[in-house]
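ok new one. same drill as before - structure tokens go in, u give me an amino acid for every spot. 716 of them this time. try not to just spam alanines like last time pls lmao
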């Protein structure tokens, strides 16, 4: 084995490290694994590896730090970057390593394909501002002594206001942007365009950024509880735990890693998930030191923070920045948005930026919206997020609470306005909601399950299982009664209930005897309709079942607010990785709460890259579509199916016990045998049953290990 290729693995997860070791060993590679960075650098000197497999996200020393040290040591090894973070972050980390002079042979997203790892190892080794950033006239800032700004920061005289951002398609609240304000005791209001440059010039910008962040994070973390215990705000409290907070970052702070480490610590201590925070940077912000900018921004994305490129379209390096840096959002400069009504050129620029952003997998955001006409135009061309005076002006934290409370369920006109703004009435059937009603039908063993929306004079069914009609008159609907209160409406036997015994839906089709309807909310908690269960015979409905129905109804609410465009794979129309990860959290929580069994399957199309090279990309696309069809035909309509990577698929089955998984795989194998595809492609599979405390990522890892064990067994 003295001539064998040498692989050194650094990964903080022993199971992953051992899996890579086993795969490499079977491929004839001399592999060593460690989870200790100090041991890793000692082994580099000892074994002089040809390849290094490096995990990005590690607690003691993250992957970017390791790569910086490897560059300092002028390590000649070929590096394989591995992580469960998104593809853009992986690619940015690879570019960061390359710009440090390291040899990058590829990235390995988790869960990784064994074939992809073997392919990489088979290569010949190479070695054999809080609104902080808008520039101003320097003369303006010089008129204010720096010590006054320092005193204002120390006394928290620099305060914050919050401007709401909404989802363009639905009109629902998506988050807030933090803006800094200074009311001087003698000078009056001092704008950010005056005190931000002063902070940058006097070395106070980090202190200002930290002060503004700390104020806003404290407000943000306490916001759900600020609504009190009123049950009518239950939905809104849940939504407020998911919305985002956007904070502008100055170019002067970008190279100060300790600042961002403290900001991360604040988030952790307050229980705020990093993915709920968006750092906004201008186009030119990262150009002062491109390599350092790439390092710090990649590390921020690795931690889970999102990055927005602000004022897009006004700088000179826009395309370069989008290609180099791991942004997750592109924000159209308000100079284009504010002139969209009268300028064809502005509308062209806006449409081009939105198409570009979506083509790169980025959310698109517009600011400076001052009319409903502009908002409607942005909605029509597919913009994701919007903010501006036409939606809401910046407001204090207390004013935000008043704004959030303004929508009441006793205001029928406002309720209908919210319902119609969703643009969901009279739309085609949608698999997102049909999957949930199928799940409800199976979980509660009822013949009919409906997602019903209560309009002005009708109830309309967005999703219906067991019922052929799409709507009924509102005056006879059970759901009209159900949306009057927050509690679940349960009618055990409609024949003896004085409210319903003479109802046309009881005496005639569909002959309702049992009904249970849970309100479905949107916006600030407006009850728009219900997720309801119907049976033709009377039955009891326990408190546990009511809790379970409420949980399933929350899945419907989450779909109403989910960004389905960003969550769908355009080729197969399945969920993509982001969409699956979001929904699997809900599904697994349901299983844990209800004591339900679940099974996750991981499928890998074998030698798919070679298949594409041999038959062409069009044949590869047809193979992916065909495999998608096989999965849909094999698994149940209530199962969660997604394209998780280029050639990886996952399926989460809820309420399944052995030998159910084995039977499902047998059905898939039989269907694959009968497939008449011009160029059939083989697949391999692994699966794992849900255990106490499991997350979707733990399930996927165990399914990946199961897949590898099956492959190893088949090879012996």
């Amino acid at each position: 084995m003295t001539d064998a290729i040498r692989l050194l693995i650094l990964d903080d997860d022993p199971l992953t490290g051992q899996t890579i070791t086993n795969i490499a060993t079977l491929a004839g590679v001399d592999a060593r694994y460690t989870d200790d960075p100090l041991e890793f650098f000692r082994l580099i000197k000892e074994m002089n590896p040809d390849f290094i497999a490096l995990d990005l996200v590690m607690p003691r020393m993250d992957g970017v730090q390791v790569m910086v040290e490897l560059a300092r040591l002028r390590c000649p090894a070929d590096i394989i970057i591995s992580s469960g973070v998104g593809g853009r972050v992986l690619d940015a980390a690879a570019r960061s390593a390359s710009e440090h002079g390291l040899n990058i042979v590829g990235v390995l997203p988790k869960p990784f394909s064994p074939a992809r790892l073997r392919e990489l190892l088979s290569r010949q080794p190479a070695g054999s501002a809080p609104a902080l950033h808008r520039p101003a006239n320097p003369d303006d800032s010089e008129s204010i002594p720096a010590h006054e700004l320092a005193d204002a920061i120390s006394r928290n005289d620099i305060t914050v206001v919050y401007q709401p951002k909404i989802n363009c398609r639905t009109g629902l609240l998506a988050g807030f942007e933090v803006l800094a304000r200074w009311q001087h005791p003698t000078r009056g209001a001092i704008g950010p365009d005056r005190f931000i440059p002063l902070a940058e010039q006097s070395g106070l910008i980090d202190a200002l950024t930290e002060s503004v962040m700390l104020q806003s994070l404290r407000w943000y973390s306490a916001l759900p509880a600020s609504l009190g215990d009123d049950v009518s705000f239950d939905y809104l409290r849940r939504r407020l735990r998911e919305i985002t907070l956007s904070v502008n970052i100055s170019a002067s702070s970008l190279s100060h890693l300790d600042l961002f480490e403290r900001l991360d610590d604040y988030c952790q201590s307050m229980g705020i998930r990093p993915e709920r925070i968006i750092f906004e940077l201008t186009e030119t912000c990262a150009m002062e030191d491109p390599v350092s900018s790439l390092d710090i921004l990649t590390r921020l994305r690795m931690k889970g923070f999102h990055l927005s490129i602000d004022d897009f379209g006004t700088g000179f390096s826009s395309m370069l920045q989008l290609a180099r840096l791991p942004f997750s959002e592109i924000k159209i400069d308000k100079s284009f948005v504010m002139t969209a009504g009268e300028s064809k050129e502005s509308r062209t620029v806006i449409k081009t930026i939105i198409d570009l952003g979506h083509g790169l997998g980025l959310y698109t955001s517009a600011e400076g919206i001052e009319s409903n006409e502009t908002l409607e135009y942005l909605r029509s061309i597919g913009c994701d997020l919007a903010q501006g005076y036409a939606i809401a002006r910046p407001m204090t934290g207390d004013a935000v609470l008043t704004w959030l409370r303004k929508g009441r369920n006793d205001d029928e006109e406002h309720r209908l306005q919210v319902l119609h703004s969703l643009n969901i009435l009279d739309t085609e059937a949608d698999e997102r909601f049909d999957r949930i009603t199928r799940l409800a039908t199976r979980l509660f063993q009822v013949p009919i399950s409906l997602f019903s929306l209560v309009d002005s004079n009708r109830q309309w069914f967005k999703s219906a299982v067991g019922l052929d009609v799409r709507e009924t008159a509102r005056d006879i609907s059970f759901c009209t009664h159900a949306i009057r209160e927050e509690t679940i409406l349960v009618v055990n036997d409609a024949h003896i209930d004085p409210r319903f015994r003479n109802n046309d839906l009881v005496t005639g089709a569909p002959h309702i005897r049992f009904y249970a309807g849970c309100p479905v909310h949107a916006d600030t908690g407006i009850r728009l309709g219900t997720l309801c269960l119907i049976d033709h015979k009377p039955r009891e409905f326990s408190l546990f079942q009511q809790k379970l129905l409420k949980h399933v109804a929350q899945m419907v609410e989450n779909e109403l607010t989910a960004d389905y465009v960003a969550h769908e794979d355009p080729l197969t129309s399945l969920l993509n990785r982001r969409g699956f990860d979001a929904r699997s959290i809900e599904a697994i929580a349901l299983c844990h709460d209800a004591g339900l069994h679940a099974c996750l399957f991981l499928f890998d199309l074998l030698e798919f890259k070679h298949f594409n090279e041999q038959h062409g990309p069009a044949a590869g696309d047809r193979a992916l579509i065909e495999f998608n069809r096989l999965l849909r035909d094999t698994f149940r309509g209530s199962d969660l199916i997604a394209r998780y990577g280029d050639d990886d698929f996952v399926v989460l089955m809820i309420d399944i016990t052995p030998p159910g998984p084995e039977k499902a795989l047998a059905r898939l194998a039989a269907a694959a045998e009968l497939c008449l595809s011009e160029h059939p492609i083989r697949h391999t599979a692994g699966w794992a049953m849900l255990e106490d405390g499991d997350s979707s990522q733990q399930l996927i890892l165990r399914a990946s290990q199961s897949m590898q064990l099956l492959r190893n067994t088949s090879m012996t």
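Confidence is low (pLDDT under 50) at residues 127-142. and btw The CA atoms of residues 236 and 262 lie 30 Å apart.
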